[in-house]
Amino acid sequence: MAASVRDHQMFSGRGSARQDQDQGPPGFSNRGAEAPSPGTVPVDVNAPPVMDDGAEGEVLELEHMIGFTGKNLDTIIAHPRLSEVYVKSVGSAVVVGDLNDPHNQEFLRGHDMEVTALAVSATGAFIASGQAGTTHRKGFGAPVIVWDFETRRPLLTLQGHTEKVNILRFSPDEKFLAACGQDLLLQIWDLQTGELILGKKFKQVVAMFQWCDVNQKGRRNVYDIAIGSSNNVALDQLYFDPARQQWILDGTSMAMPTAGMTRDYLCSSRSADGDELLAGTSVGDLLVFKLTSHVYRASVPVCSGGLRAIVVCPTTFVIYCGGGDGTVRKLRGDDMRWTLEGEAALDGAVTSMSMVSNGTELLVGTESGRMYRMLVDDLSSQLVSVGHTAEVTCVCFGTRSDVFASASSEGAIKVWDLNNYSVLAETRVTAPGGARCMCWIGDTAVVSGWEDHFVRCHDASTMQALWEIPNAHRGAVTTVATHSDASLSYVLSGGEDGSVRIWALRSRELMLQFVEHKKGVSQVLVDVKSPNLVHSAGLDCSVFTYDLRKERRCVAHMVREGAFTGLTQRLDSEQELVTCDMNGRLLFWDCDVPDPVQVLQSPQRMTMRCVSVSPTGRYLAICGDFLVNVFDLRGGVQLMAQGLGHSEPVRDLYWSPDEKQVISVGDDCCICVWNFYGAEI
What we know:
Layout: E1 29-30, E2 60-66, E3 76-78, E4 85-90, E5 93-98, E6 105-109, E7 115-120, E8 126-131, E9 144-148, E10 153-158, E11 165-170, E12 176-181, E13 185-190, E14 196-201, E15 208-217, E16 220-228, E17 233-241, E18 246-253, E19 265-270, E20 276-281, E21 285-290, E22 295-301, E23 307-312, E24 319-323, E25 327-334, E26 337-345, E27 350-355, E28 361-366, E29 370-375, E30 381-386, E31 392-397, E32 403-408, E33 412-417, E34 422-428, E35 435-441, E36 445-450, E37 455-459, E38 465-469, E39 477-484, E40 489-495, E41 500-504, E42 510-514, E43 521-526, E44 533-538, E45 542-547, E46 552-558, E47 564-569, E48 577-581, E49 585-589, E50 598-601, E51 608-613, E52 619-624, E53 627-632, E54 638-644, E55 650-655, E56 661-666, E57 671-676
Antiparallel strand pairs: 1-50, 2-57, 3-4, 4-5, 5-6, 7-8, 8-9, 9-10, 11-12, 12-13, 13-14, 15-16, 16-17, 17-18, 19-20, 20-21, 21-22, 23-24, 24-25, 25-26, 27-28, 28-29, 29-30, 31-32, 32-33, 33-34, 35-36, 36-37, 37-38, 39-40, 40-41, 41-42, 43-44, 44-45, 45-46, 47-48, 48-49, 49-50, 51-52, 52-53, ...
């Protein structure tokens, strides 16, 4: 399903250093590097990307989103009616997925920040999603969106919360939606009208909200609701007062032991017979309350690290408890009598758990970014998907188009199979700051540069560490590249110290060093025609070319302003270098011309972090802020497509060797897989 574009971020055009490139792409500015030429023609910055005549469909289609951080509770939910369908949050998107077909994903997009809370109604007709407070507008608003599951379209956008939405709950009759936020507010809306029927501010964050009985009283229902907030649990009634013509929430607190019962609540559920409230706490015990008498009955130790998820089977009366220690335990009983019938351990603290509609499986999400299918009978589990749980900093392909690698700021390296989006191999390196960059050696090994000054190499099939270069730079290793053939094999690295170093691939001995940059090196690459030439771009607004045989710099390009953040090289034209910078510019450099031969400027001056020429040399992809942009280099530079998939800035992107896909990664911990249909146009 194609991703929608929030705002087309187009570019505008001015003069050029070349007669044959004196016009920029539609919506772009083509100008000299230092000062704009007079007589600039205004352009429509909201114009769509240019498409060839007769083109059908979208050029860039969001095929798949890989990601689940597990840091928010209840953000993976099995559909209550369709056994193969689940809903999860991935960055700012709500993803409707298929347990049996990893390629079948649909994206519900309406949020501009991370989705922090999810709910699915009892019949599965509605989905609700809430987000963290936006930083894109004043007020830090955290809207709640109600979606129609059948049409996948938004029905209501509910305002009122700020900071973060923590809990969303549909009433059993699907007439109301309750939301609890980090702003201490509880809000309840009428789903038919979107009207806020109740708003109440608590002294502390509401950490537990449970709809209980629904009773008929006159023309309107009366709702029993259990609410918990830091050491206090109350059973309230929500009812309509005809005298005041408004909904009222009042009730009484549960009777607790007089001393020694101090708890913070994390989750809740009702027993299968509806007689008991079951609450999970931060100390890992299960608290049992009698709803009829409003009395605390028992504390059942279950796990360590907090009891974070409770699922009750309505037919067997069995209770499944997910713990912060990564265990799922199967309990049976009531009141003060409970027995443990089974347990299983998973990778990471359990943060989400729900019953699949067929009643034979649980869907479990953990803090390590993993999602499991677990059989309720013996608690055996099957891994469904894996995601990064920290900012994904880099991505790259080797020689295969169906395998790529990614790395994160927490030190995780993963090799992925695009056929089913599974992880073929993974490892985690304990290194402060994690990985900053990576590349392949053929399709057998992955070389990565790290914040702790190391260059490391891992076997791609096993993730076994093969070798490392300690203190490769006097600062973080920000970029790496490799070349290997019968005559010349080396590792090329650049660092925050401004140096470019060439290492012998087999011995890892330092062969050459160039210290030309005054600031950090942002990108290095091997020349597309002559492997004895290497190029570097730096944050000091300079681009250098080095001749390894002559052991010296041979070409230098500089501008007065802008920090270069990316570098790539064209395969056509005169193999020009292309840089992107923090000021939203694309600069094209010819080795024989000191100034840029073409400059494309974004009116929004969006920060560009990466630029990459496609394997055939016809297309150019850049990541700017949240967007992935693709240009056609044939006959000029034309913007073909823009894709919005990330909720935080994009850190890196890479073309697949067959040019059919682009992979982008970002600060939202997500990996977006884009199908590219440019070759079919």
